[in-house]
Amino acid sequence: MQLLDGKKVSEDIKNEIAAEVKKMKDNGEKVPHLAAVIVGNDGASLTYVGSKVKACERIGFESTLIKLPSTISETELLKKIEELNQDDNIDGFIVQLPLPEQIDDQKVLMAIDPSKDVDGFHPENFGKMALDMTTFIPATPFGILELLERYNVQTAGKHTVVIGRSHIVGRPMSILMGRKGFPGNSTVTLTHSHTKNISQITTQADIIITALGVPNYLKAEMVKDDAVIIDVGITRVPDETNEKGYKITGDVDFANVSKKASYITPVPGGVGPMTIAMLLKNTLLAREQRALRGQ
């Protein structure tokens, strides 16, 4: 069993991006600028956005954090997004989800300029991804592809089972794993809450990508020998022995499944760190594309 070490690979990617940024600075070019919009005071969201800002500082990006009250109206938030769309100083920005109930998430994502949508959630970017066109790939799926590529995990002709059909992970992964090229060229089965006899399907899988958010859902008996296991699940499970009062648990029963797997991602330290690294990579791509357009 080999661990797919997202922590190590994400550091490698950040170092590569930092070297690119240094070249930009040395050439007197504008460095990438990432903005993050957060609405309200959700603890997990604040932590996540904070780590994005720290990562920007580390690699030499400029970053802006925009904190807005949870009482903000949809109209006011859309106005703020339009300001960011028009701001030539900002290359890419994200709006941290979830948003308060008075705001329509979809309307907000639609309002983001696709050329600045470094999360890759805008329908234009999602459609380009589905058509194998150059675009921003959502950061978590992008991170999974990068892990598979850097560990040279073979995907061609393999049976990939994706558990979960969210627009952020499950659905894009099912498209990307079936695309031409590497990683890709696999035969994909997309499973979800209405799938019957899911264990019969997973035991036939060469690669399992689970993004369900149910702690320890995938058991050893659901996995065949030498399968590749990608665990996207991140759930806080109460744990009195931990000083934080909880521990982070994935979708996979790691202790038992790891004994059968050929490759497996740990939680934490697997897919999670890759998500931030690929958001930074998308921001670098956004900067390069804007420079080509003379912006």
Automatic annotation (TrEMBL):
NADP(+) binds at residues 164-166, 234. The keyword Cell wall biogenesis/degradation does not apply. Keywords: Amino-acid biosynthesis, Histidine biosynthesis, Hydrolase, Methionine biosynthesis, Multifunctional enzyme, NADP, One-carbon metabolism, Oxidoreductase, Purine biosynthesis. It comes from the Bacteria. One of its GO terms (cellular component) is cytosol. GO terms for biological process: L-histidine biosynthetic process; methionine biosynthetic process; purine nucleotide biosynthetic process; tetrahydrofolate interconversion. Homodimer. This is Bifunctional protein FolD. It comes from Flavobacterium beibuense.
